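Friendly challenge for the regulars: who can give me the structure tokens for this chain first? No prize, just bragging rights.
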Amino acid sequence: MSDLLRPTVLDAPDFLLCNPFYGTGLRTFQCYEAADSLATGSYNIMYGTAGSHMPRQYVLPISLNYGNCWISVEPSGPSVPAMMQLLPDDIRKRAAATIQTCVAGRSGIGGFATLGFNALSEYLLPPNPATLTSVFPTRATFITVTVSGTEKKLTKPGDTDSAIPAALAELELKGYNSAEENSALQLSYRTGAYWWTETAAEMARGGKKTWFPATAMANVQTPYDMTYECDASLGSPSETDCSQLEWSQLGPPSDTVSVGPGNTTFVHSDSCYLAISASTDLVLSWQQIRAAVEALLAICIMHPYSSPQGGRAYYKVQPSIIEGRRRKRDITGLNALPPHANITVFEQSKPWTNLEDELKSCTWQAASSRTAISTCK
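First reply, four minutes later:
Bragging rights claimed.
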């Protein structure tokens, strides 16, 4: 491996995310061969964007492959500049970090890393928070370096992956916790945290929805219909296992599941267990369930800046910090479940063999009664 492909530790707020959505069965040596085709350089180089007449290796987006492994370098944001100054070695190091962490470290799955995420966070976050309007400065553009399978090349994760608003929400929460109590600055951070959490919940990885709607932040409401509650007492399911559950264990959107008292549905992938339950008889579609699960995993399991922990999703009307008219929505993480329905994600160390084991297990009894599952031996 070239010295220029030695992975680097990313400085916050830049982050790296691994997820099977971006590819499975990737081979480490193929990905390193693809990354080795990226331009080298320890000084800033001017890169052009689509339509530029610069040498091809310096025109974004870049997409290179070796075998079934693709390396994509893409600008992210609603207003991409015609030219960007970038350090080629920074791009290569992010490709290497993603290969080492996701492909080599997590059984061949893909992922992406950000470059220059501070350009976005510094523009959008307090002390001088900007509003998301149709006029968006090109200086807030950042880069994503994606390692993926053939079918997922150039998927623009910096625009459409819910990890982007989730990372912004985490930065807002850190600001909220460090700001003076009940100050205008703390209120600004709280408003932003609700906004980005709502945005993340409404997005589906690989979907068409982006994090930058042409709506001013001051007019956005906080979630009304759903509560997403992270709870360390539910254990720490593996992020990889939960990604695999989300990817392969949920049913077709139009199929339904019947749940009710004593009638709980379980799905799992290794250590990551999901329970779909209700306090009264209900019929839920997998479309509803998937919307809630995607939001729950994004908030509690796959947050870029926090360790995975179990959590719950359930219907609960919440007071709004910012008053105004509710928006009409399709099924999203904000209105996925009806009253009395619950989804719980928790860690299970030993696989169950049948439904009776699942319902009577110490782990589920603890999880459903809000007792720490660590008490189960």
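Confidence is low (pLDDT under 50) at residues 214-224, 317-330. The longest helix spans residues 184-202. Your move, everyone else.
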